[in-house]
Amino acid sequence: MTARTHKPHEIVERALELSRADGCVVIADEHSTANLRWAGNALTTNGVTRGRTLTVVATVDGKEGTASGVVSRSAVTPEELEPLVRAAEDAARAGGPAEDAQPLVTGVPESPGFREAPAETSSAVYADFAPALGEAFARAREGGRELYGFANHEVVSSYLGTSTGLRLRHDQPKGTLEVNAKSPDRTRSAWAGRSTRDFTDVDPGALDAELAQRLAWAERRIELPAGRYETLLPPSAVADLLIYQMWSAAARDAAEGRTVFSRPGGGTRVGEKLTALPLTLRSDPHEPGLESAPFVLAHSSGDDASVFDNGLPLAATEWIGQGVLKRLTTTRHSAALTGLPVAPGFGNLVLEGGEDRSLEEMVGNTARGLLLTCLWYIREVDPATLLLTGLTRDGVYLVENGEVVGEVNNFRFNESPVDLLGRATEAGRTEKTLPREWSDWFTRAAMPPLRVPDFNMSSVSQGV
Question: pLDDT by residue (tens digit) across 210-248?
């Protein structure tokens, strides 16, 4: 390969040509980002970046089974390509047989555009957004509040090639917008965020108006003790909880009795009713506005992913249907072990089946309860129950007789998302949302607000 050969599909083809292993998978990820940052109602930085990550999976057959070796590196030059391929082969030969070994996927038609240049973003993605942001700055200054935050847009073009003939490509745009509004004395803070594919469907002015309302609510401060409160969880908080639930839904772990989805006495809880509400939790690579890769892109193997499954087509999947647990995540290997259908993980998540009510309408129907903004610093306490702990942040509000009457102190919570679904008494209208805690890893979600009659605020937190 000459120094001029930098096209992603050519790099994939050359790496496959160089391979001396029994099997080979090559993934070239082309990254392109554009970002804006602001503080105190003024832009501070902006920038555009480009990058490439190359992952080589080598498989080597032996008497005891097939071994795999995986090596990923950034900014690989033409001269470094062969050493990278050899390193993956050496890793395969040095390791023992791979437990998840399966024949590499075959028979998937070539993706349109596999041999074309990668998609890219640029500052042009903010052509309409940036002027609207400037107008939001002006309104915030007039209203005596300061806006801080960032907008980030990324496009990743992934090229997948295998020694079995697969030639697949997927372009994944991802945009996030996060805004904090603060009072000049920094005693009040509010957050709002949005997920977007291209920044044409986000309105900085609407976010500023939302934040202004929350800062106004916070002018009255009410101290509350720890305890169990009727609580309204907004879509962002619901997304953070259910994404973690999805990450914890590996079928093999459940079948081996190690998770909340394990059935007492053996097996899994597939087929069990988890909530009386008619909720459906699902993923679909073609979900409008939340489109994700329609085939498996696995850069490593784990409980819920296998490098041997790379290129396996993905179809719409119900994880929970009408309140009943339908699927747990499986690779081809773990599906065979557990007797469950093959159901790889996805890049999006949707919860639906609630009433056609907005969060504001649910507030209006609340006699007394708490309204959260978002959750933060979520950590697992007990995998057997999926008990999570974390903090509330940037606004917890007291609702009385259908109206927000003030801001209360923050709390540490202890809850299991599976248990919350079982105790929830109302779900509202599903909408696209940005999970705040997991936004670096997972942004494509649509969730309803949930009403939980006894959300466990386990202790008071002094955070803002």
Answer: 999 999 999 999 999 999 999 999 999 999 999 999 999
Take residue 76 and report the two structure tokens written for it. Answer: 């690989």
The one-character DSSP state at 60 is E
Report pLDDT for 204: 96
Contacts 24+ apart (CB under 8 A), 260-264: 260/383, 260/384, 260/385, 260/386, 260/416, 260/418, 261/325, 261/328, 261/418, 262/384
Q: What domains sit in the chain, N to C, each tagged with a CATH number? A: 8-214 (3.30.2290.10), 220-464 (no CATH)
Q: What are the phi and psi torsion angles at 22 (to 5°)?
A: -70, -30
Nearest to 59 by CA among 95, 18, 8, 29: 95
Q: What is the pTM of this model?
A: 0.95
Question: DSSP string spanning 105-133?
Answer: P--PPPPTTTTSPPP---GGGGTTHHHHH
Q: What is the pLDDT of residues 73-98, one digit of tens each?
A: 998 888 899 999 999 999 999 989 99
What is the token pair recorded at 350? 């949707």
